[in-house]
Every structure is written in structure tokens, then in C-alpha cells.
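Narrative of activities, Objective 1.

The group set out to show that a structural description can be obtained from nothing but a protein's sequence at a throughput compatible with the screening campaign. Below is one input-output pair from the validation batch, recorded exactly as produced.
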Amino acid sequence: MTNGNKSKRVHLDNLHVTATDRPGWLPGTERMPRVGEEVYCAGGAGTVETVLGKTGDGSRLLQIRLESPGAKPFFAAASNVLIAPA
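Output recorded for this entry:
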């Protein structure tokens, strides 16, 4: 049995977004993000492209286009995003 390269694993703490990541931004649990809104997720800053069905925690699944050039759409639960202030 071989052990995988643990240095390439993503730590669970790096997958959760908290209010301290973007002070003043609303958590996706307080308000549903809308298509075209700027959000911040574990993958970084982006724009909501599509709002899909519900996830296991009851929030909506969002398709997000990250700001990075050439980045492919990223999926995140609304419960794990921050919404830009109006």
C-alpha cells in the first residue's frame, strides 16, 4: 500500500469562507445571491452565472465564474459564499 503525496492535499479549513475573509460582505445564508452578483468563495472572487438546485445543507448550488483569466466555472454552495455589499 502506498501513501499519497499529502503535500498536495487541500486542507478542509481552506475550503470554508468566513466573514473575516471579506469584512462587510453578507454571508450567502442571509440572502440568496442573484445571477450577475459579485461573490467571494473558496476559489476566490467571481460572479454568479447560474443558480441551480439545493445542496445537502439546503442552500442553493451556484455556478461562479472566477475573476482569474481563463478560469473555468466553479461550483459552490450559497452557504459557503460571501456576497458583495450593495
